[in-house]
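Deliverable D4.2, example record:
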Amino acid sequence: GAVAVETAAPSTCRDDPAWPSRDPHGLGCAYYAGSDCAALFLFGYSVAEVAGLEASCPASCGACDVGFPAVGSAEGAECADDPEYRDRFGIACGSYAGTSCAFMGAIGFDKREVGELTSRCRRSCELTSRCR
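Output generated by the structure prediction step:
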């Protein structure tokens, strides 16, 4: 069956208080408030670090309305592709294996599309070390 992935609705969107333990610099979500979190690769963050930050700190990153996973989303979704996912071109998750999914904005994906891709194609986008 399909893997259920919840998205953070604006009324329930919240940052993960455990994020500082995973942040490459030990910083909390509030540190990133008002930043363009997707552009942090320019400052040396890896694709996985940027995607993790946006997924764990959606309120601070201003990503509550673009489809990043909600804190406490469906168990098992951390390292799974949604078999029902298709991008606007009809391309499934598996086609993105080995791709820097968080950087798809560089070829025309909007923020919502990048958020949906990185939240629904976690295995193909290799967004957690357990997925590699």
